[in-house]
Amino acid sequence: SRILVLNGPNLDILGRRDPEQYGTVTLAEIEAIVHTEAAVHGLEADFRQTNREGELVEWLHEALDDFAAVVINPAAYAHTSVALHDAVEALWVPVVEVHLSNTWKREPFRHVDHVATAATAVIAGAGADGYRLAVAHVASLLA
Ligand code: DQA
Fold first, then answer.
1. Quick one: 82 exposed, middle or buried, by C-beta within 10 A (0-12, 13-18, 19+)?
2. Which residues are identified as catalytic?
3. Per-residue pLDDT tens for 39-79?
4. Is residue 73 classed as helix, strand or coil in its secondary structure?
5. Interhelix angle for 27-40 vs 129-142, to 10°?
6. What pTM was estimated for this model as a whole?
7. Using CA atoms in the order 27, 28, 33, 39, what is the torsion angle rounded to 10 degrees?
8. 17 CB less than 6 Å from ligand 1?
């Protein structure tokens, strides 16, 4: 099966962005982790990043027909986007939300999560390993 792995705004500059919070791991390294874990479970991962909210909405729509599951780090749009909430809610495939940092121990504005209220599961605070865990979880849901 094919799974869709989506990344939102500012994750393209991971590695050079607020290393205290996010460490030095780059998105390219996360992509490699995702492909490796997907292969372990016999899955194929389509890994993407955008800084645009509407592009994330359109990519989520692709999971209506073309993907068995979604892993998404919506980044800051998790805290603001009702459009992403609605797009996730419209899917019947599993959607696992990932945040590198533990958003619950950060600023109060990160405690609102519109994607979490529609997602199947949420992993926050496990760093890049959260993506690996998310892929492993969708694999067990699909098995
Ligand atoms: C993040 C957490 C968000 O609050 C923040 O806006 C990000 C990254 C994370 O992966 O920890 O851009 O999604």
1. exposed
2. 22, 99
3. 999 999 999 999 999 999 999 999 999 999 999 999 999 99
4. strand
5. 30
6. 0.98
7. 130
8. no
Ramachandran area for residue 10 (φ above 0: left; ψ -120 to 50: alpha; else beta): left
Give exposure, 99-122, as e/b (b: 16+ Cβ within 10 Å).
Answer: bbbebeeeeeebeebbbbebbbbb
CB atoms within 10 A of CB 18: 11
The sign one gets for the Cα dihedral 32, 38, 42, 47 is negative
Distances (CA, A) of 50 to 71, 108, 120, 133, 137: 14, 25, 22, 22, 24
88, burial (CB in 10 Å: exposed 0-12, middle 13-18, buried 19+) = buried
**Alpha-carbon gap, residue 24 to 14, rounded angstroms:** 7
Write down the ipTM of this complex. Answer: 0.99
| Residue 9 Cα: closest atom of ligand 1 | 12
d(CA 21, CA 11): 13
Task: Calculate how far, in angstroms, residue 10's C-alpha sits from the geometric centre of ligand 1.
Answer: 9
Q: Alpha-carbon distance 102 to 125, whole Å?
A: 4
